Amino acid sequence: MHAPAAPVEDRDDSEVKDVVSQLRQDFSKYVKGVMEGKTPSVAARSTNYNEIQGSDIPLLDGRFNGRAGGQTVAPPIEIYHPVFGAFSERCKDPKLEIPNDVLCDTASLLRSVSKISVQEAPRDSETRGILAKILGVSFEHVVNTDETSCEFMCVQHTPQSINAAPALFQIKGELGAGGSDPSVQASFSYARFYCNLKRAEIRERSCCPAFLIGLAGPWLVIMGAVLTSRVITQRLSPYEWLGCSRVLDDAQVLQVARRLYALRLSIADLKEYYQNLSSPDVEPDHIHPRFCPCIKSFSLDGENVLFVYVQPLERDPSSVTFKAIRSDTQSPIVIKFARRYGEAAHKWMADKRLAPKLLTCESLGEKYGNLLLVVMEFVKGQTLHDAYDPTEPLPEYVRSGVRKALDVLAQGDFVFGDLRRPNVMLENENEGEELEVPLKKRIRFIDFDWAGREGSDLRYPFHLASVVRKASGALENDPITRAHQDKMFENL
Hints:
Elements lengths: L12 H24 L3 H4 L2 H8 L28 H11 L7 H15 L9 H12 L16 E6 L5 E10 L9 H14 L4 H4 L6 E7 L2 E9 L3 E5 L4 E2 L8 H26 L21 E4 L2 E10 L8 E6 L5 E7 L4 H9 L6 E6 L8 E6 L3 E3 H4 L8 H16 L2 E3 L7 E4 L15 E3 L5 E3 L12 H7 L9 H9 L2
Parallel strand pairs: 2-3
Antiparallel strand pairs: 1-2, 3-4, 4-5, 4-6, 7-8, 8-9, 9-10, 10-12, 11-12, 13-15, 14-17, 15-16
């Protein structure tokens, strides 16, 4: 996996245009590749699924081809549309009142899926009917122009006179029937549905949020899906056992009913979203909002500050760091989403002009999985990775500047757990300065995800990138120590 993303060098207008143009071209190529690929039912078979995950059109669902490798992880899906966070909140809300008919229908569903489905005694139709009643939707079988189709979906007419699909369902008699996982087949069906030429107008207005529901025998899974630069699908619930296997277990009915009622309310939210779908504002030379998170403001001194995304700062679908423009001052900023952040360490270094000014580090709340929104000033310059040949040692005066910055960090009892070239910048000299600023005084640290006070239970994450393990000597979940930092400095 990648280490945390960091802001990279400033690009002039032509380079920004190139990034935006390249992203648009890559997206068109991806959509074409999906439509020319295998049908969902064939693609979902394990051999074909493995092949696709090693190609240039994988699902970003976390599964990867062991030989080809490749990146198949993505940012948390909640940041692309609030409906997914709302679903998770509803599932956990003890005050959510579940109607009695939903409770009773859920009990019927559990009894239905407990019956083994065989050719002589199929029960798919019965199960479908109960599930549709619980969710308050009608199941429709929509055939794409290429003759492919999802098994069932809930459709919503849009103002563009095109049907959208707020929810897609893959229902199998038993787990393993048909030779594929229903959650995988539903994901490929989603990709095929929204990459279809007929739905180009929806793609131009939306990241195409949808719920994917897989039901195989007594096993239920609920997922979320969006279409950004790639199809992202993420499990919003684990496969849940629905079989009636214990007596005196009303709690099971209540638990499943809560999840299904939360799904019902969330599908209704998406139906309303598609019913009122409109064209987004697309600024010239800015990436399409489809590629961006839905968060478009931050708090500063009690005021709500709006911003517009310009481009991602990593050329990777997993990028969680973006260049943006403040709507009030038109000044460039960096927007970053993080699970944790060394706010105190960043402020300490910013006060010494050794890091960009930190504007805010705020929690987005449970609706967004308690992610942090980090906003800082945009620094014009180059990272050490881009400024110097990575196969050659850094000039001694640069290493000296980094060493002095680390000494300042130590004065606050802080450590910097990811001291690599992409996370240290050389800020450009300001225009109009009479005296040339020595290069070593233009050092700026820009990534504080793994920074903090040593001994404060500051740890490296799980799934630690091999490049960090090699440079620091750390293992996943190790406490971050000054020894790790110093070893990274030696390998800088």
